[in-house]
Specification:
This protein has 592 residues and is α/β, with parallel strands linked by helices. The chain has three domains: 81 residues, Peptidase S8 propeptide/proteinase inhibitor I9 (Alpha-Beta Plaits); 299 residues, Peptidase S8/S53 domain (Rossmann fold, 3-Layer(aba) Sandwich), CATH 3.40.50.200; 117 residues, Jelly Rolls. Helices cover 19% and strands 27% of the residues. The chain is built from eleven helices and 28 strands. Strands 8-9-7-11-13-15-16 form a seven-stranded parallel sheet, with helices on both faces. The protein has a five-stranded mixed sheet with strand order 19-21-28-23-26. Helix 10 crosses helix 11. The relative contact order is 0.13.
Length: 592
């Protein structure tokens, strides 16, 4: 038999990738035309693995052998044989069948095992997951999802209060590429894929989470499956969370001072829920048999993956363990335009399930919905995608690149990044407190988004709701003219402050003065109007330059000045025009 795992039926042709027990890139693809009667695509999700847990597993190592003997008899009647693979973090055992069966059939096997043996705690199929994204070939020059007033998450204002420093976010996905716009924020992660066919890297679990590509040939994933190029899904997700910002090139990440812990669980044709579950436990700092301790436990887990079915016990146990270790679990709701309660892990208790909106704030055409959805975030649609880090290789790795994808896979990392901003502001928040404050701070939808949760993600309001820090809300200060010289610089007496100003011509410049106590550090961030290029320069009262940010385009400029002296000093911030239209800007100023 072929050793290739079979993908979920939701993973159908064209370009949509679905969440299932697959690598962190359990993709949702666009729905294909209705299949003809001769179609060879599977009518039901298939898997060649079964998970069984015995209650006596906590006290003895014997159940692995006992479980195999008991399950073998049941499966023999269905013409299948099984072998023991390994033990999960929760004490359950994973078994491999010599041929794939439908998940429904394996659920019946599980019921038969439980009915015949009171020692069976649970038995369930080891489902394949898929990434939750919709690839889109068009590249967009602006990250509307961060900045635009309609459906953007209001990141620039949030960055004035938090950038995610000190928080680790695990990207449980296809692995990552060492993209130049991301590499400095990557921690050493781990590869949790056990099946070498899925892994594509020639081995099983190891210390290398690099994505070798998840491409597949026609017919490899199931009979009649189309050929697929490598998605580099995990790299795209990681870039949305923590791409380098303020470096003069590329894209900005939601929590650009956070660190990404790559945990590889998805590969060719997806990934098994058993591998994903172990990856979650390890990422949060839990113990997994045969794996070294994680030296950088994550406070946030991002799972942009999923598949069909209600929440499995395997997922429930892993999520409960991760939450018990203090981790917030963020998952994509799925891309089937159906009720998210019919999908996992979005239907699991304890997760933050994220739906997707398009650029006008309405629910994206593909997004799942329903009572289990907690809130929505930008995921893009056919009109505009989400731009992030990517790789140019069609199969094996190529050059660094950027590209736009769409899907709930793209919506989830906006929330995960925002949670990192919240935890950097207030590390004492529990997973339940994070979820409550995140949902309460969401803003009303600007367009129709039925059953999309409590509202649209608002990163600025979420950071305020997190509490902590020197002040929960910055003082808003209107610009007062004239302020075009050091002698007429507008004083900013109350910090943190958000200045709402404007350059009225290419000859205009605005200056602001701040009194900085000995030992204090001043941080200022300038966000210009769209398509404009303004610079931010810090000088002393003698016009000596202390720091400057001269980034091209409409990027956010940042300056920082430390008063290392023994007495207070005055710092003057100069906003000047460099290119593009004159117009409004936002200047955030803080001192600590």
């Amino acid at each position: 038999m072929s050793k290739s795992p079979v993908l979920l039926p939701a993973l159908v042709a064209v370009s949509l990738l679905t969440l299932q027990a697959v690598p962190a890139a359990a993709f949702e693809r666009d729905a294909a035309p209705a299949a003809s009667a001769a179609s060879t695509a599977p009518a039901a999700a298939l898997t060649d693995r079964l998970i069984i847990k015995y209650r006596s597993a906590a006290t003895t190592a014997a159940p692995a052998a006992a479980a195999q003997l008991r399950a073998a008899a049941v499966l023999q009647r269905r013409g299948a044989k099984l072998t023991h693979l390994r033990r999960l973090a929760d004490g359950a055992d994973v078994f491999k069948l010599d041929r794939p069966l439908s998940e429904d059939e394996l659920r019946r096997v599980g019921e038969e095992l439980r009915n015949g043996d009171a020692d069976v705690e649970y038995a369930e199929p080891d489902a394949l997951m898929q990434p939750q994204l919709v690839p889109n070939d068009a590249r967009y020059g602006e990250q509307w999802d961060l900045f635009e007033a309609t459906a953007g998450i209001r990141a620039p204002t949030a960055w004035e209060k938090s950038t995610g420093a000190g928080v680790v976010v695990a990207v449980i996905d296809t692995g990552v590429r060492p993209h130049a716009d991301l590499a400095r924020n990557l921690l050493p992660g781990r590869d949790f894929i056990t099946d070498t066919f899925i892994a594509r890297d020639g081995n099983g679990r190891d210390e290398d989470p690099a994505d070798p590509g998840d491409w597949s040939s026609a017919g490899q994933c199931y009979s009649g499956s189309p050929a697929a190029k490598s998605s580099w899904h995990g790299t795209h997700v990681a870039g949305t969370i923590a791409a380098l910002t303020g470096n003069g090139s590329g894209v900005a990440g939601v929590a650009f001072d956070a660190k990404v812990l790559p945990v590889r669980v998805l590969g060719r044709c997806g990934g098994y829920s058993s591998d994903i579950a172990d990856g979650m436990v390890w990422a949060a700092g839990g113990s997994v048999a045969g794996q070294p301790a994680n030296p950088n436990p994550a406070r946030v887990l991002n799972l942009s993956l999923g598949g069909g079915g209600s929440c499995s016990t395997t997922y429930r146990n892993a999520i409960a363990t991760a939450r018990g270790l203090g981790a917030v679990v963020v998952v994509a709701a799925g891309n089937d335009a159906s009720d998210a309660s019919l999908h996992q892990p979005s239907s699991c208790p304890g997760v933050i399930a994220v739906a997707a909106v398009k650029r006008n704030g309405a629910r994206a055409s593909y997004s799942n919905y329903g009572s289990v959805v907690d809130l929505a975030a930008p995921g893009g649609d056919t009109d505009a995608g989400i731009l992030s880090t990517l790789n140019a290789g069609g199969t094996t790795p190529g050059a660094d690149s950027y590209g736009s994808y769409r899907g709930t896979s793209m919506a989830a990392p906006h929330v995960a990044g925002t949670v990192a901003l919240m935890l950097a502001r207030n590390p004492k928040l529990t997973p339940d407190e994070v979820e409550t404050r995140l949902k309460e701070s969401a803003r009303p939808f600007p367009a129709a988004c039925g059953q999309c949760g409590s509202g649209l993600l608002d990163a600025n309001a979420a950071v305020d709701a997190a509490g902590g820090g020197s002040s929960s809300v910055a003082v808003t200060v209107p610009e007062v003219e004239p302020n075009d010289s050091i002698g007429r610089a507008q004083p900013l007496n109350d910090l943190p402050a958000t200045v709402l100003g404007a350059l009225r011509s290419d000859a205009d410049q605005d200056l602001y003065s701040v009194r900085l106590a000995a030992g204090q550090r001043l941080t200022a961030r300038l966000t210009p109007t769209a398509d404009a290029n303004y610079d931010l320069i810090a000088v002393d009262t003698d016009n000596r330059r202390l720091d400057a940010s001269l980034l091209p385009g409409s990027q956010t400029d940042t300056v920082s000045v430390l008063n290392s002296g023994s007495s207070a000093m005055s710092v003057v911030l100069r906003v000047r025009w460099t290119g593009g239209p004159a117009g409004a800007y936002r200047l955030g100023v803080a001192a600590d």
